[in-house]
Amino acid sequence: MAAFVDRVVLHVSGGMGGHGCVSVKREKFKPLGGPDGGNGGDGGDVILRVDEQTTTLLDYHHLPHRHATNGEMGRGDLRHGKTGETLVLPVPDGTVVKSRDGEILVDLTGVGKEYVIARGGMGGLGNASLSSQKRKAPGFALLGIEGDSRDIVLELKTVADVALVGFPSAGKSSLIAALSAARPKIADYPFTTLTPNLGVVQAGDVRFTVADVPGLIEGASEGRGLGLDFLRHVERCAALVHVLDTATLEADRDPISDLETIEAELDNYAVDASFAGVDGTVVPLNERPRLVALNKTDMPDGAEMADFVRKELEGRGYRVFEVSALTREGLRELSFAMAELVQKARDAAETVPVDAPVEVVRPRYATKTEFVIRKEERNLEPLFRVLGEKPERWVKQTDFTNDEAVGYLADRLAKLGVEDQLFKSGARPGDAVAIGEDNAVLFDWEPTMSTGAELLASPRGTDLRLAEFSRPTRDQKRVEHQERKDAQAAARAELEAERKAGIWTESVNYKHQQGNKSE
């Protein structure tokens, strides 16, 4: 039997985007046919999806690290990289997704509901996509960036209409077995129920689900026993049923004291804001409709105890039912009372108007504020930090080993208005400027944005290999040929004049004379 796990910490990360390709088309009779580098593929997303076949979070307890597929790199001949495959993680119905800080991200209820928990990284553009009228042959491409990476908490909260709460061995499992087709484990020792059990009950025309919550004890809301782990399974329920043991053998317990103890634990438990009603209000557990089931009245002392405490409970405003899971006495009346509370809750939810939120479709990386500049201090010197989704993403896409790519980044930042904003923020030439928070790129700012592209052999965005040269005409070739012939004739005439003047002979005799002297 698989273990029941209802809370796990999951580490998810989207796939990394593939790098763009730098390539120039080369074919026979078409030398240097232009850039044809393909784009890199986007990384795969990580999606949580409610699956009716999944009932526990056990798989994520054993394998808490999940990573989507990376996008492939672009290639030449305009071959774009393949997009990474989406990783779909099935979760049970009723899973609440939280951040590590406790912030509720989404409440996954309903089979098929999805939530993208980590998006894949954007693939880099190849040099074919970066070409333009001014940049006809880019010698660089953009890099792919990493996908989202985050740690989340998955909490399973049972989806039920009515919850049975009470002390251990109060008979909750026996009741749910008698009311429905559920067959939970039943034994005569405390904490027999270690996992919530669900059962479907039909009362007239109303069908609803009942949850058997593991036994609660005093201090459960503070972590004692199993209560803290399973009180959250009561949060979704519209009504509660206190199951009180009228035949307990413990001398310090009775139905009234058990009820007061459980009510105190319900008072101390804070309900998540994700379980607000359709009107936006959160109903605490102690304010929800409640019934009292005096169980085990088939026992000799049970019937007497039920008669003794019934008036006291009714005086406190509870509807009291004397039941027996063994003889099934009073179960029909109890089931119809539960169905009445469930139907009232459903009718109230239908009558409250719900303003459907208007979905605003925005580009994937669109933000309202492009960037902000924060003035800091580093080593008693001013530091200007540029923060924004676009600038930080552009830095990740830049290959800083390529001067042309760095120049392209400078153009993008200037077009975004970073340079003008630095002027307004009081930056001076030579001040340190950092882009990003973690792993920031640091450089000394110059108003001209000189980042190395000016040192290229040709203007940025051009290629001398692709420059067009005019072919000389036939007359121009004749003139050039005649000029070369005239230059050769003049050189020969100069050498002949030197020979006739005896310069060469003297030079030879001089060397011969020097040789005789050495002998």
UniProtKB/TrEMBL annotation:
<comment type="function">
    <text>An essential GTPase which binds GTP, GDP and possibly (p)ppGpp with moderate affinity, with high nucleotide exchange rates and a fairly low GTP hydrolysis rate. Plays a role in control of the cell cycle, stress response, ribosome biogenesis and in those bacteria that undergo differentiation, in morphogenesis control.</text>
</comment>
<protein>
    <recommendedName>
        <fullName>GTPase Obg</fullName>
        <ecNumber>3.6.5.-</ecNumber>
    </recommendedName>
</protein>
<dbReference type="GO" id="GO:0005737">
    <property type="term" value="C:cytoplasm"/>
</dbReference>
<dbReference type="Pfam" id="PF01926">
    <property type="entry name" value="MMR_HSR1"/>
</dbReference>
<keyword id="KW-0479">Metal-binding</keyword>
<keyword id="KW-0378">Hydrolase</keyword>
<dbReference type="GO" id="GO:0000287">
    <property type="term" value="F:magnesium ion binding"/>
</dbReference>
<feature type="binding site">
    <location>
        <begin position="295"/>
        <end position="298"/>
    </location>
    <ligand>
        <name>GTP</name>
    </ligand>
</feature>
<dbReference type="InterPro" id="IPR036346">
    <property type="entry name" value="GTP-bd_prot_GTP1/OBG_C_sf"/>
</dbReference>
<comment type="subunit">
    <text>Monomer.</text>
</comment>
<keyword id="KW-0460">Magnesium</keyword>
<dbReference type="Pfam" id="PF01018">
    <property type="entry name" value="GTP1_OBG"/>
</dbReference>
<feature type="binding site">
    <location>
        <begin position="166"/>
        <end position="173"/>
    </location>
    <ligand>
        <name>GTP</name>
    </ligand>
</feature>
<dbReference type="InterPro" id="IPR006074">
    <property type="entry name" value="GTP1-OBG_CS"/>
</dbReference>
<dbReference type="InterPro" id="IPR014100">
    <property type="entry name" value="GTP-bd_Obg/CgtA"/>
</dbReference>
<feature type="binding site">
    <location>
        <begin position="324"/>
        <end position="326"/>
    </location>
    <ligand>
        <name>GTP</name>
    </ligand>
</feature>
<comment type="similarity">
    <text>Belongs to the TRAFAC class OBG-HflX-like GTPase superfamily. OBG GTPase family.</text>
</comment>
<dbReference type="InterPro" id="IPR045086">
    <property type="entry name" value="OBG_GTPase"/>
</dbReference>
<keyword id="KW-0342">GTP-binding</keyword>
<feature type="binding site">
    <location>
        <position position="193"/>
    </location>
    <ligand>
        <name>Mg(2+)</name>
    </ligand>
</feature>
<dbReference type="InterPro" id="IPR027417">
    <property type="entry name" value="P-loop_NTPase"/>
</dbReference>
<feature type="domain" description="OCT">
    <location>
        <begin position="363"/>
        <end position="447"/>
    </location>
</feature>
<feature type="binding site">
    <location>
        <begin position="212"/>
        <end position="215"/>
    </location>
    <ligand>
        <name>GTP</name>
    </ligand>
</feature>
<feature type="domain" description="Obg">
    <location>
        <begin position="2"/>
        <end position="159"/>
    </location>
</feature>
<feature type="binding site">
    <location>
        <begin position="191"/>
        <end position="195"/>
    </location>
    <ligand>
        <name>GTP</name>
    </ligand>
</feature>
<keyword id="KW-0547">Nucleotide-binding</keyword>
<feature type="binding site">
    <location>
        <position position="173"/>
    </location>
    <ligand>
        <name>Mg(2+)</name>
    </ligand>
</feature>
<dbReference type="GO" id="GO:0042254">
    <property type="term" value="P:ribosome biogenesis"/>
</dbReference>
<keyword id="KW-0963">Cytoplasm</keyword>
<dbReference type="GO" id="GO:0005525">
    <property type="term" value="F:GTP binding"/>
</dbReference>
<dbReference type="InterPro" id="IPR015349">
    <property type="entry name" value="OCT_dom"/>
</dbReference>
<feature type="domain" description="OBG-type G">
    <location>
        <begin position="160"/>
        <end position="343"/>
    </location>
</feature>
<dbReference type="Pfam" id="PF09269">
    <property type="entry name" value="DUF1967"/>
</dbReference>
<feature type="region of interest" description="Disordered">
    <location>
        <begin position="470"/>
        <end position="494"/>
    </location>
</feature>
<dbReference type="InterPro" id="IPR036726">
    <property type="entry name" value="GTP1_OBG_dom_sf"/>
</dbReference>
<dbReference type="InterPro" id="IPR006169">
    <property type="entry name" value="GTP1_OBG_dom"/>
</dbReference>
<dbReference type="GO" id="GO:0003924">
    <property type="term" value="F:GTPase activity"/>
</dbReference>
<dbReference type="InterPro" id="IPR031167">
    <property type="entry name" value="G_OBG"/>
</dbReference>
<dbReference type="InterPro" id="IPR006073">
    <property type="entry name" value="GTP-bd"/>
</dbReference>
